[in-house]
Amino acid sequence: MNLRVKKFFFGLVTFIILFNLLLSKKEFSDKNYNNFKATFNKIDGVNVGTDVVISGIKVGYVQEVFIKNNYPQISLLINKDIKITDDSSISIQTDGLFGRKFLIIEIGGSEEYLKNGSYFSFAEDSIVIEELLQKIIEIGEKNKEL
Q1: Quick check: 121 pLDDT over 70?
Q2: Which of 2, 38, 91, 106 lies in disulfide reach of 120, CB 3.0 to 4.6 Å?
Q3: What is the arrangement of strands in the sheet containing 101-106, beginning at the earlier edge strand?
Q4: Which residue(s) pair with 50 in the sheet?
Q5: pLDDT digits over 78-96, tens only?
């Protein structure tokens, strides 16, 4: 076989392999995760893939964001090895003043644990920077009047 034919077949095989890798579905196994849900009033800055942490350690991520009964809901995948009590709370936090958003779970003291598919009982909404600044301005104006 001459060199041109060998290069052609090598290029064709390489193209087929790369094409297959690009078009193949990325299968993600969620068998190592439990699914939990939380209902909020505001979830500004939270998207699919947002980190979920406990004590500063990433234990999961946001799988889905949707609206149910006119309230935003978040579906989370949390590592199966993590046991979350049924009185635990979840809140949306910001990394620094203008940083990325993440969800933090505060573990409660109950001896009962959330089951796969359960909802968190306590959820704290995202703080919108504009609202926080407006509150600071209002407090400053009140203090100026005194």
Answers
A1: yes
A2: 38
A3: 33-39, 71-79, 57-68, 51-54, 101-106, 89-94, 122-124
A4: none
A5: 999 999 999 999 999 988 7
Tell me the residue range of the domain where 100 lies: 33-135
pTM, two decimals, is 0.69
Place of tokens 């998207």: 47
- In angstroms, the CA 127 to CA 102 distance is 12
Q: Check if the beta carbon of residue 124 is closer than 8 Å to that of residue 90.
A: yes
Residue environment code for 17-40, b if the CB has 16+ CB neighbours within 10 A, otherwise e: eeeeeeeeeeeeeeeebbebbbeb
What is the domain count for the chain? 1
Cα–Cα distances in angstroms (integers) from residue 17 to residues 9, 10, 59, 108, in the given order: 12, 11, 34, 50
Q: What is the mean pLDDT of residues 51-80?
A: 94
